[in-house]
Each structure stands twice: as C-alpha cells, then as structure tokens.
Amino acid sequence: MNNRDLRAFLILLKREMWESKNLFIAAPVVLTILLVVAIFWVIPQLPEGALAEAISQLGAATEGVGALNLAPFLMTVATPYMVILYICTLIYLVNALYQDRKDSSILFWQSMPVSNLYTVLSKVVTVCFVAPLFVVAAISVLFLFVIITATVLGLSYDVELASLGQLFLASVYSLLLVYMTAVLAALWLFPTAGWFLLFSAFAKNLPFLWAIGAFVLLLLLEDIIFGTQFLGNWLESRTSNYNYIIFEASDFFQRLFSYDMLFGIMLGAILITGAVYMRRFAE
Amino acid sequence: MSEIVGANSLVKYYGNFKALDDVNFSINAGAITGLIGPNGAGKTTTLKALLGLCEFEGELLVVGRDPRIDRHKLMEDVCFIADVGILPKWMKVSQTLNYVEAVHPKFDRKKAEKFLSGTQIPNDKKVKALSKGMVAQLHLALVMAIDVKLLVLDEPTLGLDIIYRKEFYDRLLNEYYDGDCTVIISTHQVEEIEALLTQLIFINNGKIVLDTQMDNLSEQFVEVIVDGNKIEEAKQLSPIYSREVIGKKIFIYEGQTREKLAHLGEIHTPGVSDLFVAIMKQNGYKEEASGDE
Predict the structure, then answer these.
(1) How far apart (Å, rounded) are the C-alpha atoms in residues B62 and B74?
(2) How many domains does chain A have?
(3) Which helix (H) or strand (E) holds A244?
(4) Residue A281, min C-alpha distance to chain B (Å)
(5) Rounded to an integer, what is the distance from CA B188 to the centroid of its chain?
(6) ipTM of this predicted structure
(7) B90, B103, B132, B149: which to substitute to probe chain A, counting the most A Cβ within 10 Å?
(8) B4 contacts B25 by C-beta, under 8 angstroms
(9) Residue A107 near residue A282 (C-beta atoms within 8 A)
C-alpha cells in the first residue's frame, strides 16, 4: 500500500463515518447522555442513608485495590454500549453493500478509481477497528463524569474512595480492555459479519431476511440430508463470550491466536471475498 | 488518430433477451460521439460494458484496457455521469469534493471549486437538499475537474428543465472539451447534442444501424423538399424515408449524389433527429415499443 492508496483508504473509512455517523457516533453519545441523566435523576431520589451507605461500601470495596484489579469492574459499564454496538453493526452490515445499489449511487462509487476490494475492506475495518473507538470515547466521557461525581459525593460524606489517581489509571486501563474486547468480539463474530456482507452485496431486496433465511435453510438442509446439527452447534459455540472478553491486556494475543478464532477469521474472509466478487458487476 | 474505444462483436444477454447483438464500433481520440437509440435499444448496456459495469462476450478495449479487468484502474482515465441523481443523497457538497480529491489522482480541486462558485450550490448542504438541476451541476463540476481521456455521459440531462439542459452542454463544450479528450453521449433527445457531435452512432434492438462521422453526413444523406409536381419522380429514386410538413413532401435519400437530386426541389443535409426517425423506421422500429423512462 503506497501513500496514495493509504490516503484513499483513509477517506473510505471517513466516508463510512460520514454515512453512518448516527449508528457509530450518535448512538453511543446518546447512550452516555441518557446514563448521565439517569444518574442525576436517581441520586436525589435515594433516601439520605442509602446514598451514604452505598458510597461507604464502594469506598470499602475499592480500598487498597490496585488500578489493574479495579479496571475489570469498571468494564461492566461497557455492557449497554456493547449491546448498542452489536445492533448498530448489524444494521450497518446489512445495508453496507445494499443501500447504494438500491439508490443507484453505486454508479457514482464505481465511477471512481477505487477497487471493490478496498470498498469492502473499508466496511470491515470500520466494523472491527473504527466503530469500537467511538464506543470507547463515549464511555470515557461517562467515566470522567462518574469519577468526578463519586469523588465529590465521597468528599461530602467524608468517605475516601480509591485515590483519584488510581481511579483514573483504572479507567484508562479498562477503556483499553473494552477496546480490545470489542475488537476481539468483532473478529470472533467475523463469519457472521461476512455472512451479512455477502447478502448485503447479493440480495436484490430485503438483505436481512435473505441472510437469515439462507442460514435457516442451510440448518434445515443439514438436518434433512445428514441428520446432523453441526451448523447449529457451531453457531451456538460462537455465542460464548469467553472467547473475546478479556480482563487483562496480555490475554489479547492468546485469544487472537486461538485455533477457533483464526478459523472463524478465515471463514469470514472467504465470505467477504464472495461479497467483493458479487460487487464486481453492478447489475 | 489513436483509438480510444474499440468494440468487436459485443454480445450481451439478459436472460433470453439479447441486449447487444454483435456490436462493432470504433471511436478515435478527440471525438464527441453521440450514441443514439430508442429506449431499450442497448445504449446503456453498451456504456455499462465500456465502463466495466457488466459482463459480456466479445472484445472490447477502452483506453487500451479490457474494462472487465481492474475497473478501478480504468477509472483513472475514464469518467462517467450516468443519469442524473446518482450522487449519494446523504453526502454534503464539501464531502463529495474531499472524497474525489482523495481517491482520484487526476482531480483538480481548485477547478471544481471554481465551477461551483459560478452556481447557487451551497457547500455545506447535503445532496438530497439540492434540486435535480443542482445535483447535475455538482456532478458536472466534479467530473470537469478530472483530467481524463474519456468521458461517458448516459442521459446526463434526463428530467432536467431546458435551462439546465442547455447550460449543461454549453459548459461541457466551452469549459471542458479541449480536443484532447473523447466524449461519448447517449441520449434520445437528439436535437440538443446535434451541434456538438463529430461522430454519430445509431443503435436499435442491440444492433448498430448507423455509424458515421458528422463530416460525412452531408455526402451520405440528402434531404429534399420535393416540388409538388415531382413527387412521383422522387419516389422512383427510392428514398429511405418520407414525411409531410405543412403540405410539403420531404424525402431523405441515402447514397444519392446531390447533383442527381438537385432538380427535385430544395436540398439539405437532414437533421439528426429526422435521420434518426428515418433509420429507425428503415430498421423496423415499432413505435409502440417506445415509452418514456
């Protein structure tokens, strides 16, 4: 990849964000705003004692706990963000190679010296590496808010929470873990992403139903012809989150280079190659 | 002159429908070629083949490349405007400039901005907020700022009002065309581009039915407004087409010398639209097959 290619690829990533800013930027931002509003709404509702109790329990729980050990607890905050990210990513993948065919703007994209491979890769990189960045950014704003609020409350109740420095370190580390987890999750679910991209590039209409329908058909065919449930079991095994949630940065490579993970990435790559091929002729 | 497009025995099926039936033609550098045909004649299919947007049989070289291989490399030398309104609706005007600037090595942003400054198009508006005419202007501004060898226009002014249509072609000719690049225009609004063309290709039912240089048109075809008493004589010379305008009989002849026809009445070179109708009728074009897109 030379300089020009790199520049072109970066604008393709930007292009995805211009088009899908609601899914990848607005959604986590709105979630942060809702959570902040919820916190402000809940705190004054709590009975006087309960808040002091909660603060002191929190103080006790975090006392003497190092930043590295605190981080996994902070990661739980990411849960609603990950749910939103999954939903948005699914909507994005289904439309990624479909919408422009539907509104004919594919003719504009195809009139530019950009290969189909780059176009499809830009969507894959968006899902795997770019979208999680915005999740992490949104969570970091929430953390900042929570740390400040908790510290102020702690001071007002004369409870010493883990030191500010520790909390800050723990948040930064947990953000790194959240990002790594999101990337691993995307790679773990790579075959799913490839499957939806393939049907996004192929279906004349209703790409989501095509993707689901085709898979259900495969399940049925397997059951009828071979009497086995290999595909179903395999799909079920993919839902196990052990394979991508990590609580220590050093686990990243161990998860990444596992046999199951690499097999999934390979399978996804084959499906994505199919999507690139489908994209060749805009008919 | 070097050949920019060379098509040899192009065949394309859509299911059982033969959209291209042994299409052969050649376009030289510097030409402004009109690809004219009724709806469904194969114009768009031919252009899609040139641009690497569809599969087909036969040999085709566009700027020295087979468009079926590495379309993205071909697009460094070829630009196209297909129909109006293929610009992505969600994009802002400024984003279209940023995008093309980053992906196209031959795009001159200053040039595009200069073109745009002569229009009412606001930089921060999305394409969907622009009128149809503005979208066409924007697309033309983007394309005119790209220094390519071949520009392909497929019904570029369809659905625009006459002011935009005229302006579109005026700008194209005055500000873009410099004799170095080659332009292919497909349309069925023949009158609008008649004066621009250097080469004329008629297509019907997937076949090329006429391929001629505009300079040769006056030698190849003659239109005669026949004097009232010479109509029978005129019919004897086997005209390819006849029509009646305000009580006057008008005949079009192919391959007859002007000298031979001069005594029949007033002699002209036929207009492209009359010639189009003549050639289409000669090739068995049925009017009921037409319909506006």
Answers:
(1) 8
(2) 1
(3) none
(4) 5
(5) 8
(6) 0.89
(7) B103
(8) no
(9) yes
